[in-house]
């Protein structure tokens, strides 16, 4: 039986990055897509709890079924996994995100939230992001990268409980130097809220921000991307800092 | 100068757990609270991007300033840290959450999302959760636990880039056996969406779920909680699975 690949994203079901990812995935197997009705960027692993979610069938043809859902990316992933996949998926893909999810951005990303959820559920998962926020971003140089990594993971699998965070630099196919396994760069967003005043004089605050990267040593994803490489960061869902367990023993009662 | 403690949560500014946490924090220093206007559970590290957020002053007295914000817990944390703290906070606290954030729940929790964001910003941070979802939960047995851990962290600090996820069992003060440093238990939520039909016959899906824990070995937070201990899991914000970098080298191009 062909592999079944479940796909989502956070830019919404109509995003061009999702379409490219779907096209490449179909080279490998049957595909189910469930993606948000609208852009759901920066939703992290947010879940919809107070209200129900709805699902709408968008497209159905041989080997492809596309749904839109008004929940978050993690809602999409969980719901599709449990109720809209004809069999257990062999692989979850998320993206291709319009914009970077390198470094600390993995924490906030809805695209990567769905990848993390898939990992919790025990399914191999890969998130793809292109360093170009534009709706008209050129995803053509991304195709062979996605093809290589998806093919590799379908063939060789991934270590247990490990998913991949793949970021692709905004370069032509010729300019991309290769693919590098990396660790997540340390960084943070500062100056994150801008104060404004509404037409009747009341203050409001709008998210903005300036990304500050504290590295790069030459093994981080930021370094790889700045030097023309595709970065692949293996991530996991155990947030425990194991050395600190011992260091903090004197806190016990 | 007294320590400044910044507090948030995901149950909302009016939650009783937040009030108890604020009272204990005031024993140690000046306190700024910025918490969501409404319940914002399961928001993870979600950020508000499409619309602005508003802030409302709720209470001001000597050594205490309380604000409500209509953003997510991470919005609250970032905005308060940058614009509503009179000086850099020495410590961030989040909670006391009404309900567990042990095991994999740390991934979805808004309470813990704010703790993770504080860690990104380089501030020592602790999230507290009580294993009781009720609005009328009894937080009295939590007070000495919170007091001990806050006092310890203010005195001794935390390892760099490490925060604490503290969960308190639903027991009386006498029944609580002690405090244990733990790792995050492996687990997952299954059967997560229930299908229903609305009054005009259209289907909808509502989040529910059954928690399945794959452990416990005797060092996990689930084990500690089940055996009457407060669990303290040191967490960090680097999701990299370092051993996998080497294992996946053959994926490079």
Walkthrough of the structure:
The structure is a homodimer of 253-residue chains. Helices cover 24% and strands 29% of the residues of chain A. Chain A has 253 residues and is α/β, with parallel strands linked by helices. Chain A has a single domain (4-184, 217-238), classed as Survival protein SurE-like phosphatase/nucleotidase (Stationary-phase Survival Protein Sure Homolog, Chain: A). In chain A, the strands form 3 sheets. The first copy, chain A, has a 9-stranded mixed sheet, with helices on both faces. The longest helix of chain A is centred in the middle third of the chain and has 15 residues, at 142-156. At the A-B interface, helix 2, helix 3, helix 4, strand 8 and strand 9 of A face helix 2, helix 3, helix 4, strand 8 and strand 9 of B.
Summarize the topology.
2 copies of one chain form a homodimer.
Chain A: E1 4-8, H1 16-26, E2 30-36, E3 55-61, E4 64-69, H2 73-84, E5 91-98, H3 110-120, E6 125-130, H4 142-156, E7 163-168, E8 178-181, E9 187-190, E10 193-197, E11 203-207, E12 210-213, H5 221-226, E13 229-235, H6 242-247
Low-confidence regions of chain A: none
CATH class of chain A: Alpha Beta
Fraction of residues in H or I helices of chain A: 10-25%
Cα radius of gyration of chain A in angstroms: 19 Å
Please state the second-level CATH architecture of chain A.
Answer: 3-Layer(aba) Sandwich
Give the topology string of chain A: H per helix, E per strand. Answer: EHEEEHEHEHEEEEEEHEH
Count up the domains of chain A.
Answer: 1
Quaternary: homodimer
Tertiary shape of chain A: globular
| Global mean pLDDT of chain A | 96
Structural class of chain A: alpha/beta
